[in-house]
């Protein structure tokens, strides 16, 4: 693992306080009577603590970085969620329009047990953990976000992939009535993404329901999203409605739009520039001002030790 710079480590006292706050908040919410349905809960992003639904305190899990976390205001105010608008501040402004009530996710395709799961069933499927991951956007900025969720592998195992399943496609909500960004032709809707099955089964691949100890704000992909920390941020599809196991490499929104700029793999790689800019360095949102020196981008976003073996023997210049 790459060691964080001393200046990047949150002072232990601050960190302990944060943990206390998280645990106290979770405990308090768990104690509160929970009369309303999960869908009612989900229409108030950020207002409730996740453990209120599950009764499980979250715990910090393997793969977490010790780096200082990005302020919540930045992580929830500077977003890419094109269905909710192209400019960075628009998703937060339009997030209240997301139709979160009665949300379901279909898990289908080459599986022995296809199913459609409601949010509550999804939340109860595996213990929730806190995972503090770096997120590196292809645009050249990064954040450090404490997500709450569990490994996608837990869900995939439940539906029992068939031997012929080699890839996983993720489909996200495309609701023209509630998502003003769908009027734009910048991407083909619905937004789709994909992983190879072994990437999807890797324990770092996270199904996230919350961040900073709270339910996901709409602009960050409520009520459930993918987080794949060693790949560029666009692989981490928000507001999932379907997960499909397939034999062939699936279409993905960015790859369809600009295949020479956005490859299927899109592993963070400082040695493979984007067609129009370098990927060698990055700016940490909320910390590095425009004039601050940029920090070097790490291969696989710093997760090489965990994931590089997934690509042994592959030419990563070709399979970018
Ligand atoms: N998911 C959907 N459905 N639509 C999007 O436009 N943008 C992606 C990804 N997931 C996007 C999406 C991009 S480009 C990035 S960098 C991350 O979400 C940003 O996640 P964040 O806003 O939580 O930091």
Number of strands: 12
How large is the share of residues in beta strands? 15-25%
Question: What is the CATH topology descriptor?
Answer: Sulfite Oxidase, Chain A, domain 2
Q: State the major sheet.
A: 7 strands, mixed
Oligomer: single chain
Query: How much helix, percentage-wise, in residues?
Result: 10-25%
Q: Radius of gyration over alpha carbons?
A: 19 Å
End-to-end C-alpha gap = 22 Å
Sequence stretches where pLDDT stays below 50 over 5 or more residues:
1-47
Q: Regarding CATH, which class?
A: Alpha Beta
Layout of SSEs?
Blueprint: H1 12-31, H2 38-42, H3 51-54, H4 72-75, H5 90-94, E1 104-109, E2 115-118, H6 119-124, E3 129-136, E4 141-151, H7 152-159, E5 167-172, E6 192-196, H8 197-201, E7 206-211, E8 214-215, E9 225-227, E10 240-246, H9 253-257, E11 281-284, E12 295-296, H10 304-307
Describe the structure.
With 320 residues, this protein is an alpha+beta fold. It has a single domain, classed as Sulfite Oxidase, Chain A, domain 2 (Alpha-Beta Complex). The protein has helices at 12-31, 38-42, 51-54, 72-75, 90-94, 119-124, 152-159, 197-201, 253-257, 304-307; strands at residues 104-109, 115-118, 129-136, 141-151, 167-172, 192-196, 206-211, 214-215, 225-227, 240-246, 281-284, 295-296. The strands form two sheets. Strands 3, 4, 7, 8, 9, 11 and 12 form a seven-stranded mixed beta sheet that branches. A five-stranded mixed beta sheet has the order 2-1-10-5-6. The protein starts with 11 loop residues before the first helix and ends in a 13-residue tail after the last helix. Bound molecules: ligand MTE.
